Amino acid sequence: MYPKQISIYEVGPRDGLQNEAQLGLEAKVQLINGLSACGLKRIEAGSFVSPKWVPQMADSTAVLQQIERQQNVTYSALTPNLSGFEQAIAAHVNEVAVFTAASESFCQRNINCSIAESLRRFDTIFVAAKAANIKVRAYVSCVLGCPYEGAINIEQVAAVSQALIDMGAYQVSLGDTIGVGTPQNARQMLDAVSQRIAPQQLALHFHDTYGQALANILACLDSGISTIDSAVAGLGGCPYARGASGNLATEDLLYMLHGLGIETGVDLQQLANVGHKICQQLGKRSSSKVSQALMN
Ligand code: HMG
Ligand code: MG
Prior knowledge:
Layout: E1 7-10, H1 12-16, H2 25-37, E2 42-47, H3 60-66, E3 74-78, H4 82-90, E4 95-101, H5 104-111, H6 115-132, E5 135-141, H7 154-167, E6 171-176, H8 183-194, E7 202-206, H9 213-220, E8 227-230, H10 250-259, H11 268-282, H12 289-294
Parallel strand pairs: 1-2, 1-8, 2-3, 3-4, 4-5, 5-6, 6-7, 7-8
Helix pairs in contact: 2-3, 2-11, 6-7, 7-8, 8-9, 10-11
Magnesium ion (MG) binds next to loops.
Pathway: Metabolic intermediate metabolism; (S)-3-hydroxy-3-methylglutaryl-CoA degradation; acetoacetate from (S)-3-hydroxy-3-methylglutaryl-CoA: step 1/1
EC number: 4.1.3.4
Domain Pyruvate carboxyltransferase: 6-272
């Protein structure tokens, strides 16, 4: 049975913009304000990573300072280490997200350390977050394939996910970083992870590189999952995963979920307008089919 409601975790301002041409501060702030006005309740607003690694996110403190905060919206940011966590707290995020991978090679290229070392770094974040009463979300990348290693063992995905939950993550987001999954293996991977972790503590984070993200979500939708990550206009990708094009577009996800009678609390037409504007500012066409149809 499909769920009655799905919580959308909007990653456009982070995952989206980290892989696009640099955008001005004001445009980022307007984007986030526009997203919250559409009814999105969880927005990843920035990333406290090295500005040498990802210059697009260097102004995350200013972004978080300048947005108009809505009471019932959770604004989060990526934090790879304690330094990132401290910056995020100083910028008054509501929660943070740590990120590692099921692939050693990807972990090295993305955060310059092994999976085991990434977990040790996160340990310090979990301790500090508990003291500050801040929730921690966690990402596992390459759950359906790695740009450097190819196929990934789903038991490794399950083991890394479990380690993160055991450390205190309230949710693990399963990232198909390069969008190579197809419905059957996406579901098999989710079922393997669900053997160890309740589906309510999992989220799906599928990139749409091969146009499979929506089909993969549908294949996983009756599993008890309640959170799906997506990006307005299908923006983005990971700069350390060559060929990783955009995330699943939030507009396309909403259209499918609403068509299935699943509530999201998000206004699709309003979101399409926000997506249209950001694409104009970036000088690109929206990769959301639904947006292309609605804004025609
Ligand atoms: P490193 O070079 O090993 O770190 O990078 P280090 O501790 O040796 O420090 C090197 C320099 O970085 C120093 O500066 C530090 O101060 C600075 P310097 O002395 O050279 O001037 N530094 C920092 N600056 C700002 N904020 C920080 C910070 N930490 C160190 N938090 C590090 C290690 C993790 C920092 C680096 O590898 C990094 O920033 N990586 C980020 C890569 C990234 O952001 N990737 C994209 C996000 S992940 C993703 O998109 C996947 C996801 O969407 C899920 C999916 O799709 O699968 C989440
Ligand atoms: Mg991603």
